[in-house]
Amino acid sequence: MLTPTLLSCLLATKIDLRHLRSVAVEDAASFAESEGLFFIETSALDATNVEKAFQTVLAEIYRIISKKPLSSQSGSGYSSNIREGESIQVSASNSGSLTSQCCSS
């Protein structure tokens, strides 16, 4: 079984060469399910399900990330002392006085 932070997919290649199969589709799908993997049959020859495989993995990553509360994203490089439900007070700044030195001559 995989950890919650690891997303994996079992790809069966060469779907166009069914007569050369070593593993039955049902066996591969059953194995994938028992291991918590996505299972997709693909073909590099005619690109069958190749894009679907990437889209499935990306959609699942998005689903997992969007479910996480902001507070659980520690270790992301951002630190905050703001707790959930607190308001943030932003003071007016004098942004007009800031100038960039990189492009001035």
Automatic annotation (TrEMBL):
Coiled coil: none annotated. One of its GO terms (molecular function) is GTPase activity. This is Uncharacterized protein. It comes from Eleusine coracana subsp. coracana. The lineage of its organism: Eukaryota, Viridiplantae, Streptophyta, Embryophyta, Tracheophyta.
